[in-house]
Amino acid sequence: MLGAAAFSSSAYAEGDYQALQNEVQMLRQELAELRALVKQQSAAQEEVKSLRQEVKTTSRAQAEAANADTVAHIAGYAAVGLTDRSQNGSSAFNAASFNPIFHVLYKDIALAEAELEVSAAPDGTTETKLEYASIDLFLNDNTTLVAGKFLSPLGYFRQNLHPAWINKFPSIAPGFGEGQAAPASEVGLGVRGGYPFGEGKKLKYALFVGNGPELEVEDGEIHGIESDGYTRDVDRRKVFGGRIGLVPLPRLELGISAAGGGIGLSAEPDRSYRVLGTDVGYQWKRLDLRAEYISQRVGDLAASAAPQGGTWKAWYGQASYKLLPTKWEGVVRYGKYISPRTDQRQEQWALGVNYLWGPNVMAKLGYEFNQGLAGEDTDANRWLLQFAYGF
Predict the structure, then answer these.
(1) Does CATH place domain 71-390 in 2.40.160.10?
(2) Secondary structure of residue 57 in the 3-state scheme
């Protein structure tokens, strides 16, 4: 009986020991899980702490930006192009340009802005040109004073549509290039702005006074009117002018431009200079319609090295249509340029198709049917390919 009791006590001790081991194992497992949980919570706390610091830093940066007196911004565009003249077989990648645009805003008082054009020349060198550089003073909600070099407000294309990523076609319409019928830039003072009236209606204006353009003279003849924006005034007579635009409907704009003053050569009396233009633009759903006329007239001067003046005039009409929901866009354009020099005159029909990866990234393919003086580039049909990116 004593042996049985001893055996029973031993069995109980062994069972109790096993239960104790199981309990210890469970406690160890719970402790490991607890430690892992603590580590996770610590990591989470560190992550939260880091996130709080990041939010704090971002908030501070936003507050500093919101309270900053001066804010800088950069925009611009780049373009690369290929031209292939089908009649003479010449083909070249003849365009590579980068145009950064800088804006520096001081509160809601003033804006300094400038555009540089950096491009590759045919001989492989790099050309740099200042497209414009001005200080704009915001006098009120309807009026801005502009001082410096600015794009000519005469006409619509030059000041609004000429950048490669905005222009619907790889080339510029005949007569709207530099030294032709449309003024490009001016150096002087200007005021611009607009007054809304009624629902969706607006009156726009842009007025200026500047040094004016200069004459390009060769062999006793005027070859063109250069309006690159000069800081000199060789004829000592300013040019006054501007554009008035009317928006009678939300997507319709009508404009008229005019300017007058003097133009001439150094050490010669000035002669009369006149500009007249009109433009219209209309957008309806996927359709964009535009047309513009511009002319520059230079008076005669018998005592000049180039006595005979003349009129340089050009016009174009253009329609583009976006083939939604695809990324394709079709373009057709007609243009004509009339110059006192017959070798510069040109009439053109142009067809194009664009592919848009985005509203500011595109490839443009076009073909021009050109008619000009036989043997001149103005008479050669050509293929055009352009890649453009605006940022």
Answers:
(1) yes
(2) helix
| Residues composing the chain | 391
> Does the N-terminal peptide bond of residue 269 adopt cis geometry, omega within 30 degrees of 0?
no
Residue type, 331: V
N- to C-terminal Cα separation, the chain: 101
Q: How far is CA 217 from the centre of its chain?
A: 33
The model's pLDDT over 122-154, given as tens digits with 9 standing for 90+, comes to: 999 999 999 999 999 999 999 999 999 999 999
pLDDT in tens, 322-350: 999 999 999 999 999 999 999 999 999 99
CA-nearest of 298, 310, 245 to 271 is 298
Q: How many CA atoms lie within 13 A of 199 on its CB side?
A: 0
**Pairing of the two strands 239-249 and 287-298:** unpaired
pLDDT digits (tens, 9 = 90+) for 60-102: 766 666 668 999 999 999 999 999 987 767 899 999 999 999 9
User: Which band of pLDDT confidence, cut at 50, 70 and 90, is reported for residue 195?
Assistant: very high
**Contact between 136 and 150 (Cβ < 8 Å):** no
Cβ burial, residue 305 (10 Å; 0-12/13-18/19+): middle
Q: What are phi and psi of 212, to 5 degrees?
A: 85, 175
Domain boundaries defined on the chain: 1-68, 71-390
Contact by Cβ (8 Å): 213, 234: no
Residue with tokens 């001005």: 134
Do 137 and 149 contact (CB within 8 A), yes or no? no
